[in-house]
Write a structure and sequence with these properties.
globular; mainly beta; eleven-stranded antiparallel β-sheet; 3% helix
Length: 381
């Protein structure tokens, strides 16, 4: 794995990969833009500052593309959690030539075990390239607030009006987030820890959120990975301020090469950030079975992390994402799972924390017989 990371470093330093700034390309998107500073982690290469990756990334060119903004909130001690997602598939296909092209809003109520999605034409989507702002129909979101209303599958309606307070952001991909075209998918937990306040109304019932643990991230790219996984929490027992953001999978990188265990892990504890990234040459080992996730990682600073996650089958909801090429991606997600984190410095154990309100996820392009295979010790990858 370290050799593969080193190979990617060599490729990215090649002059063959140096290209023009996005704004100079023909047909650039007619959206608000600001001068883009050099990416600090890749000196001399055009790109966005880290904060800019929570805004629109699409450069306006036609072809396969997707972006979405995802938010979640957990109401501690209630067994209740929600997610909200605003996205677009093939934003350049305003003629709707592909059946996959769309904009959409989706939401999930984990207490009721229900998800909903409303699709819109591509033309109903708008976003800013200079700040976090996205609108799909009447629904809108920024890094500080989100609003929406949509019909539910069985009748009734869901609506939300929420404020977001950022606590911690983490660059999970490190320098590999900046060069466009390195990977077919990018992930940025812009608000790996946040708080939400406001109201959610779901089929006539109103839920009031008062600065509850929350989270917001981004995904974008041209196609989906073979599989992905995700483990997050910012509500560990007896450890205020602790937060975990771990995600990755098997993407395609330069030349169509598959990169297994391409994971980024961030853990904030005791006012410090601990990072483990494949692009930094760190060791990362991931073992995923139905219902159980095990992650081991070590970095060059002598720090190690062990993550164990579990949730029973009934806590997972199925979220479907449309790939630009027209294939559905099946994503199984729980927001009330158990996550245990052990953090070491050298041989010294410096944290052993647990959360019963963690986000756990596995997705792939193949529909899984998820509930039947639970506990069968069948590897998901």
């Amino acid at each position: 794995m370290r050799a593969l990371a080193a190979a990617c470093c060599l490729l990215l330093n090649s002059p063959l990969l140096a290209g023009p700034a996005l704004d100079s390309l023909p047909g650039a998107a007619a959206v608000p833009r600001v001068p883009r500073p050099l990416a600090l982690s890749v000196p001399g290469r055009p790109g966005l500052s880290q904060a800019g990756y929570n805004a629109l990334i699409w450069d306006g060119r036609p072809g396969d593309w997707y972006e979405w903004w995802y938010y979640k909130a957990v109401l501690p001690g209630t067994g209740q959690a929600f997610y909200f997602c605003y996205g677009v598939v093939n934003p350049g296909d305003t003629a709707q030539a592909s059946a996959a092209s769309r904009s959409y809003v989706s939401a999930g109520n984990f207490g009721e075990g229900e998800t909903a999605e409303q699709a819109f034409p591509v033309s109903a989507f708008s976003a800013s390239a200079s700040s976090t702002f996205v609108r799909v129909g009447r629904n809108s979101a920024t890094d500080k607030a989100l609003k929406g209303v949509m019909p539910l599958p069985g009748g009734g309606q869901a609506s939300w009006d929420l404020k977001v307070e950022k606590d911690w952001g983490f660059n999970a991909m490190g320098w590999t987030m900046y060069p466009q075209g390195l990977s077919n998918i990018y992930w940025y937990p812009a608000q790996a820890s946040a708080y939400m306040t406001g109201e959610v109304s779901w089929n006539g019932r109103t839920y009031r959120l008062d600065r509850v643990p929350a989270y917001q991230d981004r995904n974008w790219g041209r196609s989906f990975p073979k599989w992905w996984t995700w483990l997050v929490s910012n509500n560990f027992r007896g450890a205020p301020g602790a937060a975990l953001a771990a995600g990755g999978g098997e993407p395609k990188v330069i030349g169509g090469m598959s990169l297994p265990n391409a994971m980024g892990i961030g853990f904030r504890y005791g006012g410090r950030e601990y990072a483990f990234r494949l692009g930094s040459g760190d060791y990362i080992k991931l073992d995923v079975n139905y219902g159980k996730w095990e992650v081991r990682a070590a970095n060059g600073r002598g720090e190690r992390i062990e993550i164990s996650a579990y949730a029973p089958a009934e806590k997972f909801l199925l979220l479907k994402f449309m790939a630009p090429q027209g294939r559905e991606f099946y994503d199984y997600e729980a927001l009330l799972g158990t996550i245990r984190v052990k953090l070491y410095s050298g041989r010294k154990l410096i944290a052993d924390l647990e959360s019963d309100e963690g986000g756990i996820e596995f997705g792939s392009g193949s529909p899984q017989e998820f509930h039947r295979l639970f506990g069968a010790k069948v590897p998901l990858r």
